[in-house]
């Protein structure tokens, strides 16, 4: 999610504790729209990373440094000149705006004490870092904005800094009930949207959270709310704002499986879903550590998707070709359904053909298979026997086509299933090591170019996911078809339990029994949740999962790795994901 005013309030509160009284030791500008301030104070050194990037604006205390260019940009040199050893007097946030302001004290060229303001605005594509005099006169900014770029506000040296207000919004920290009701009721939109459009610093997810806390449907409009509902919503938001004012924050990340999907400075009860639900929450001691974890995780996911883009394209193109081929084969197969009709025509002509005298265009007779009267079209230039032979020839041709197409259609369907399983493996890959085996499989089956003779085969270091159930049972999840094959036929014992999402591509999940026969239901539910999550059905609310003891699983002869057959299985409905953490390998 983007930075909202509540996240900024949490950061401002943290920075007030850690930065106020500290002194700037170093200023670096590793990117054109990014600063790193090294601040020493309170017996520790802090790196404050600030980015005004349009795609990823952020500010937090970073644990890792970044290399700087050999020649510092002009804005960095300007800051070094003025505030290279400045003391941070105050960290403040105007209202609930997405703005943090550092009030700095330093000595000028004459040795006199003076103050400056470094203002960080994190507003999407309008994000900026603005350096001002104490009275608000802009000295410079990391992004200069002229009237040609913005008709609302110029950000240029010599101009006076102000916060632009392009529409009427209420400050959630100070808004009265009467003003709140007016803003919400007059908004011609859904309640949830009205909250983040008419209140400063409120993000869509927090608007959803407010509606959830007040037990009010966010899809209703403000004008639909009764006076009692409006009052309840106002007081719900006011209670949350009291926590913001008092600095009672609870930084947390919401995960879906291993993927972070949301973060917040306050608890997000709208994501609560029990210990085996889709979402899990992880709390953090500070918003800075949360942001560093969140963005490094997102960066890792983005990086692996970029690394796998070539493999995804290979799979996607192969799937597209096979889907077209499969549709054509099914259409041709449907055309062969009339073959038995031609066989019956031939047999009936052989039986009743003696009634024909020649030149007839049809024969009406009784179909002795059904007892019904039937009309058989005839070629008047042919005899009854010749017409019968013609129909038998059609039947024979369609029968041969049916037999050939049945085999080809089966092969195409198997190829589609194989490619879909590879696509599912790409979806759950977490590192470059996980991609190595997938690439090997694509090369083995002719989808990707094989390595040149003499090229060394890469070392396989990827291992299956390993979990421990709440009751202490080992659970393993294959990341690709090779690992699925190995888990099922080499790692699992006969009495271990095997899980797989029903009818859709996904991982093999093995629940190790350790020789025990009395396995608690919770272990089955957790293994089923993992099988649902590591499948193509992970976005569904629930997924049907088959499970059966390993000894009843059979390998399909000649099939791609990981493809099995089984009968007499059990089934359960599982919510994708689970509260289990991966075990240390």
Automatic annotation (TrEMBL):
Residue ranges of domain NFACT RNA-binding in the record: 463-558
Cellular component GO terms held in the UniProt record: RQC complex
Alphabetical list of Gene3D superfamilies matching this protein: 1.10.8.50, ibrinogen binding protein from staphylococcus aureus domain (2.30.310.10)
InterPro entries recorded: NFACT_RNA-bd, Ribosomal_uS13-like_H2TH, RQC_Subunit_NEMF, RqcH_bacterial
A single BP term in Gene Ontology: rescue of stalled ribosome
Keywords: Protein biosynthesis, RNA-binding, rRNA-binding, tRNA-binding
Key word Metal-binding present: no
Entry GO MF terms: ribosomal large subunit binding; rRNA binding; tRNA binding
Annotated family: Belongs to the NEMF family.
Complexes and interactors: Associates with stalled 50S ribosomal subunits. Binds to RqcP.
Protein function: Key component of the ribosome quality control system (RQC), a ribosome-associated complex that mediates the extraction of incompletely synthesized nascent chains from stalled ribosomes and their subsequent degradation. RqcH recruits Ala-charged tRNA, and with RqcP directs the elongation of stalled nascent chains on 50S ribosomal subunits, leading to non-templated C-terminal alanine extensions (Ala tail). The Ala tail promotes nascent chain degradation. May add between 1 and at least 8 Ala residues. Binds to stalled 50S ribosomal subunits.
HAMAP family: RqcH_B
Protein name: Rqc2 homolog RqcH
Source organism (scientific name): Candidatus Enterocloster faecavium
Organism taxonomic ancestry: Bacteria, Bacillati, Bacillota, Clostridia, Lachnospirales
Name of the gene: rqcH
